[in-house]
Design a protein that fits this description.
The complex is a heterodimer of chains A (350) and B (350).
Chain A lengths: L6 E5 L3 H12 L3 E6 L2 H10 L1 E4 L4 E4 L2 E4 L3 H4 L3 E6 L6 H8 L3 E9 L6 H8 L4 E7 L2 E5 L2 E4 L7 E6 L6 H10 L4 E4 L3 H20 L5 H4 L5 H19 L11 H6 L2 H15 L6 H7 L10 H11 L4 H14 L8 H12 L5
Parallel strand pairs in A: 1-2, 1-6, 2-5, 3-10, 6-7, 7-8, 11-12
Antiparallel strand pairs in A: 3-4, 8-11, 9-10
Helix pairs in contact in A: 4-5, 7-9, 7-11, 7-12, 7-14, 9-11, 9-13, 13-14, 14-15
Chain B lengths: L6 E5 L3 H12 L3 E6 L2 H10 L1 E5 L2 E5 L3 E3 L3 H4 L3 E6 L6 H8 L3 E9 L6 H8 L4 E7 L2 E5 L2 E4 L7 E6 L6 H10 L4 E4 L3 H14 L1 H5 L5 H4 L5 H18 L12 H6 L2 H15 L6 H7 L10 H11 L4 H14 L8 H12 L5
Parallel strand pairs in B: 1-2, 1-6, 2-5, 3-10, 6-7, 7-8, 11-12
Antiparallel strand pairs in B: 3-4, 8-11, 9-10
Helix pairs in contact in B: 4-5, 7-10, 10-12, 10-14, 14-15, 15-16
Classes of the chains: A alpha/beta (350), B alpha/beta (350).
């Protein structure tokens, strides 16, 4: 079966899902984009997608559906790419599950550790894991600014049991229309390694609303980031995750993890997003939407508390992010001062 | 705490949800109506709801959200009424779960037996059961034709453990703005009793596209309905459900269940929808959407097969409905002939 014979859904078309859906459509594949933001779906139906790359401007018609159209079309998908915030994982997949073939696959193109959630709905046998390095933003329906060129976008793909299967090769050939692809036998380790880097950058910077290039100048930012990363590494170690090479760093460099390596990881991630751009939770807060940091720093905090590992920094980031999500405080660079004072006043300082 | 202090969500604003949401808003309660049909939500935002009842024309501004707005407002609801097709139960409940207070309550105003799915997501302790007798239709965004007046609408409400609690009284007080309310100690029995009636009427008539008034004239319709009802009663008894009074008939009449009583139940349900009305799955098929009969006749068929009870008629209705949903055949009066021939050719005739 050629990849053009696969019926593909991209479920969730924020900036990442739209970027992926546009590239797969551009490659001539049978792709349906499905999303919960009505204005964006209407714009896609009327005018297609407009993706602004650093090196290319892609305008193309796409097949776009509102969520409610699934019960009209009653489709049967071979491959579903789930590109939603972590907190939308379960319900979105429960919505989609009746339309996934018995031998279909779901690939979560997400940050955080959602494969257990995904497989609880569609079964381990229909779940493929993925680590994502793609930076993009969407604020206007139909219009995406993608920061990473196709050559500089990277996905690590792996079966949950670590085997390299024919269907993994099939998903790789689909995704090579979007990014560079590596197959891995330790995709969960790869996802935790990415989560460490996200805890260090998205976490503290997301509270401030600052561009990466400005946030890095805040006194103490690198110190906080290193502490966040050390906590996340310690928790990952306790959970049994083996670190994986991502962001151009080897696993050995990561596992050694002196401060310089952590800082290099952070710098690399900030460069992926680009100096003039802002990290994803800032997009959410600008839109007045909740971020998914409770699944990133919050996960480290929660697991650390279970294991008795000090997680003061991640807990403080998760708490301040919660206050912003619930509209108790605004996103503001003063939140970095709040973070520092909370870390100093909390017990269990690392 | 007065019911005016309760933050209420109506999740799902088809014909029934819109009717409920409009009445609760009209009563001055704090109600948010949330739905997956973007055009309807947009109309509600702009023009409110227009509900044509037999004795009243209600035009009222309402507070309406798209699904994607939950992650903006991050609300905390005390009471959620779920008014969606059975196949939308799990994902919709999962979507709103983070926004239901820990001591909140969740009431499914649906046909089908969904309380196990609901309580699986929000917990038994937050689930209240309901039996619904409200007939309405929506084909145009914002405009609902409601067949049953408020006094002619009836809901049975009950805790899953059968106790009469203060919160049940509270939900009753809220719902009395919509309908006549009975509290019941056996809400699941009452839901199965309603399901029996639905398998008899919605089931066969839904395949034909006919008005109830015309469908009843089809030769063999009452025989078929009685056979469907007998299967459903037998399966219900085997599952341990005790029949409950619905549609003005006593439980004793129902459990006696001569053919006359089953026919009386069917007549009552058809009158409820009204001479000119069509049964709900026909609305779905006209809209090109799948019906929920797989969770009505289909539940009887699958449970009957598990229990070794003959369910030929319900299985045949379910199969023909599936073919319509998947666009293999059209809804058409000839499907009643197909149903009769399938029932005669299948083994295990009841």
């Amino acid at each position: 079966m050629a990849i053009t014979d696969n019926k593909i859904a991209v479920l969730g078309t924020g900036s990442i899902g739209s970027s992926v859906g546009a590239d797969l459509t551009h490659a001539g594949l049978d792709v349906t984009l499905i999303d919960q933001w009505p204005a964006h779906v209407e714009a896609m139906k009327a005018n297609g997608l407009h993706i602004q790359f650093p090196d290319e401007d892609l305008n193309l018609p796409v097949a776009a559906w509102h969520l409610c159209e699934l019960a009209e079309h009653v489709p049967e998908f071979d491959v579903v790419f789930l590109a939603v915030k972590s907190y939308d994982t379960l319900w979105m997949l429960q919505l989609m599950e009746p339309y996934l073939k018995d031998d279909g696959v779901v690939i979560g193109l997400q940050n955080a550790m959602n494969d257990e959630r995904i497989s609880s709905v569609v079964g381990v046998e229909r779940t493929i894991g993925c680590v994502v390095e793609l930076s993009a933003e969407i604020f206007t329906p139909g219009l995406v600014k993608r920061d990473t060129t196709r050559d500089r976008t990277w996905f690590g793909l792996g079966e949950l049991d670590g085997t390299i299967t024919p269907r993994l090769e099939m998903v790789k050939s689909i995704m090579e229309n979007v990014a560079k692809i590596t197959l891995t036998n330790n995709v969960e380790g790869g996802k935790w390694t990415k989560l460490i880097a996200n805890c260090m950058t998205m976490g503290p910077i997301g509270l401030t609303g600052l561009k990466n290039i400005d946030a890095r100048k805040l006194p103490g930012m690198f110190d906080i980031a290193v502490q966040l990363g050390r906590e996340a590494m310690a928790v990952g170690d306790a959970l049994g995750y083996e670190l994986e090479p991502i962001l151009g760093l080897t696993a050995e460099e990561f596992a050694g993890a002196d401060d310089d390596v952590l800082i290099k990881a952070m710098e690399t991630l900030m460069n992926v997003v680009g100096p003039a751009s802002v990290t994803a939770p800032i997009h959410d807060h600008i839109k007045g939407r909740k971020s998914d940091m409770s699944y990133i720093n919050g996960l480290v905090a929660e697991k650390g508390e279970e294991f008795g590992i000090p997680v003061t920094h991640n807990a403080a980031v998760a708490e301040i992010d919660r206050r912003i999500n619930e509209h108790e405080i605004p996103m503001d660079d003063s939140n970095f001062g709040l973070l520092k004072s909370m870390v100093d006043s909390l017990p269990n300082r690392v | 705490m007065s019911i005016k202090d309760k933050k209420i969500a109506v999740l799902g604003a088809g014909a029934n949800g819109s009717s409920v949401g409009a009445d609760l808003t009209d009563a001055g309660l704090d109600v948010t109506i949330i739905d997956q049909w973007p055009a309807h939500v947009e109309t509600m935002k702009e023009n409110g709801l227009d509900i044509k009842m037999p004795d009243k024309h209600l035009q009222i501004p309402v507070n309406a959200w798209h699904l994607c707005e939950l992650a903006e407002h991050v609300p905390a609801f005390d009471v959620v009424f779920l008014v969606v097709k059975s196949y939308d139960t799990r994902w919709m409940t999962q979507l709103i779960e983070p926004y239901l207070k820990e001591d909140g309550v969740f009431i499914g105003l649906q046909n089908g037996m969904n309380n196990e799915t609901i309580s699986d997501v929000v917990g038994v302790e937050r689930t209240i059961g309901a039996v619904v007798e409200l007939s309405a239709e929506i084909f145009t965004p914002g405009i609902v034709k409601r067949d049953t007046t408020r006094p002619g609408t009836w809901f049975g409400l009950g805790e899953l453990d059968g106790t009469i609690t203060p919160r049940l009284e509270m939900v009753k007080e809220i719902m009395e703005n919509v309908a006549t309310i009975t509290l019941t100690e056996n809400v699941e029995g009452a839901k199965w009793t309603k399901l029996i009636c639905n398998t008899m009427t919605m089931g066969p008539i839904g395949l034909t596209g006919l008005k109830n008034w015309d469908a009843r004239k089809l030769p063999g319709m009452f025989d078929m309905a009685v056979a469907l009802g007998r299967e459903s009663m037998t399966v219900g008894k085997a599952l341990g459900y005790e029949m409950q009074p619905v549609f003005g008939m006593t439980a004793e009449e129902f459990s006696g269940a001569s053919d006359e009583i089953l026919i009386k139940a069917m007549e009552a349900l058809m009158n409820h929808v009204g001479k000119e009305g069509v049964t709900a799955p026909i609305h779905d098929h006209i809209k090109g959407r799948k019906s929920e009969m797989s969770l009505i006749n289909g539940i009887v068929a699958s449970k009957g097969e598990e229990l070794g009870i003959p369910v030929t008629c319900n299985a045949a209705v379910t199969e023909i409905d599936r073919r319509i949903n998947e666009k293999e055949i059209e809804m058409d009066v000839s499907n009643f002939g197909l149903l009769k021939s399938m029932v005669e050719s299948l083994p295990n005739r009841a």
